[in-house]
Amino acid sequence: MDLEVRHLRALCAIADTGSLHRAARELGMSQPSLTTQLRRIENSLGGQLFSRARTGCRPTPLGRTVLSRARPLIDEMRSLVTEAKTAAARAAGPRLRIGATASRAIPGWLRRLRTRLPDTETSLRMDVSANALLRLVASGQLDVAFVHEVEGCPLRVPDGLEVRVLVEREPQSVTLPADHPAAGDPVVKLADLATDQWMVDPTVDGEWDGMRRMLREAGLNPRVLHGDYLTAFALVASGEVVTVCQPTTRPRPDLVIRPLHGDPLGVRLLLAARPGTDGAELDVVYEELATAYGELL
Hints:
This protein has 297 residues and is an alpha/beta fold. The protein has nine helices and twelve strands. The chain has helices spanning 5-17, 20-27, 31-45, 61-92, 106-116, 130-138, 207-217, 229-237, 279-294; strands at 50-53, 56-59, 95-100, 121-126, 144-150, 162-171, 173-177, 198-200, 224-226, 243-245, 255-259, 266-273. Strand 3 (95-100), helix 5 and strand 4 form a beta-alpha-beta unit.
C-alpha cells in the first residue's frame, strides 16, 4: 500500500487527540474504519506506530519518527492547496466562505454582510465541530469561521490563523420545561436540578466535558442522555430532560430559558480567519458579526 496524504493526516489526528474514537470523529469517519486504516498503514511500514491502552493511544518510537516527517509534508500540502485556492478565488471574483457553529446571530450576520459587501458572493457552512471548521479555514476551504470554545476545553487552533475574540465569556443558561418547579425562578441553582435527567450533544467539541465538569463540581451525578439539541428541546418541552443552552436561545411557550446561579459554565466566542485574508474585509466581517450578536441581547 502506498502512503497518501490522507493516511498522514489520520496518523497526526490520532497523535493529537490521543484517541482513535476522537480522531475518527475529527476525520469524519467511523472508529472501525480508522482502526482498519491504521492497521494497514502499520503493516505497510512494518511496525507498530501507536501503543494502545485504556488511557488512549501514544506514539511508539517508530510512530514519533513517522510523525516528525509527516507533519511538515502535511503543512506543505496545506500551503499548496491554500495558495492555489486563493489564486483561483481571485480569478473568479470576490467571495466570502463562512463556517459557523450554531448561533442565532448567523441570519442577521449574513444579512448585514450582504448589504455591506454587495459584490461579494457569500456562502455558509454549518458544523457542530469547531475544530473541524478551524481545520477547513487553515486548509483554505473556508475564509472565516465563527466558533464556540467551551470553558476548560481549548480548541486546537492551527498555526497561522488570525483569531479575534467576539465575547471573552458567555455564561451558558439552562432550558427547562415550562412547568418545571424551578421554571419560576429568575436564576436556577444546579442543586434544584439534581433529580433531572440531562441531555448533551457529545459531537459538539468540548460540550460533554464542560457539562460533566460543571455537574461534578456541583456534586451532582445525574442521568445523562446523549443526542442532538433539536431533539433535546423537544424532550425538554415534554419534561423528559433539561439541558444547557446559549443565553440567546429563543424561549417557547412550552419551555423557558434561565441563567444558572454562579454562571458555572461559559464559552468563548471566536472569529478565525485564514492566513492572507484582507484586513479591511475581516474588519467588516467582525464588525457585522458583533452587531448581529449585540442585537440578540
